[in-house]
Amino acid sequence: MMPRRTLASIAIATAFACTAQTAAPVPRGDEILRLAKAAFRAHAHAPFVSYTVERTDRRRREYDMENSYTLRVWCRRSDRSALTRRQWNGSTVGPLENVTVAFDGRVDPGPPDADVFEPRLYARPAPSPEPSATDLPTIGVTSVTVEGDYRVERVARDGDAWHLWLIWKRDPERNRIDELWVDAETYELRRMKVRDHLYLGDTGASLPEEFDVRFAMRDGTPLIATIDGRTDDWEFETHYAFRDVTFAQSLPDWYFQPQRYGAHKGDAPV
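The structure corresponding to this sequence follows.
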């Protein structure tokens, strides 16, 4: 018969082993996604945002001077209409141009406070708009919301963040997020991988490009800090850095009326 002390030691060791093997339960993926969306959209945003975007292109790992530049952008968030000017050696130069800022377009992505969960963020319009979520019938006074854009395929812990792998449910041209990292406590966005395209000049031709989007907190709000894009074969690489971000409650109306740019050359923003 085994001595009692030995039996007790085995029992304690077994208990510790079982405790060590019992990990905290992983939250459901759709619940993490819901909380991440809610946290991201809970932040108030000013109607206008100004920022500098620095673009650096490489082809076959060699610096591409022709397609690398720095822009100063003044954007109206309601429709993403923007006044842009080139920057050179820290000075704003060149003509005034009006663009509609969007992901997956011939213009640079942005703005840095864009609602990255919004399908209409992308330049290609959908034939018919679809809601991002579907309200289920109300039973008594209780209603629930079902995620209508993505299905969470997998969840894993990555340090102090949750890493989610997403599968689009409806339209892959509108629902572009493939992976998502969110803070495990606050559910604020840290990083995401998004499908985009690299447009080749004015030809209309494009190549699939993956965006690795990194966020930084500013005054408690996550803003896009950098985007690293690459084509499938790594021939083309594009890096975007967003800086000098400022918010405003108003900007002059003519900023978003390109037909009036000629009359305001003398008071163009810098």
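The helical segments are 4-21, 29-41.
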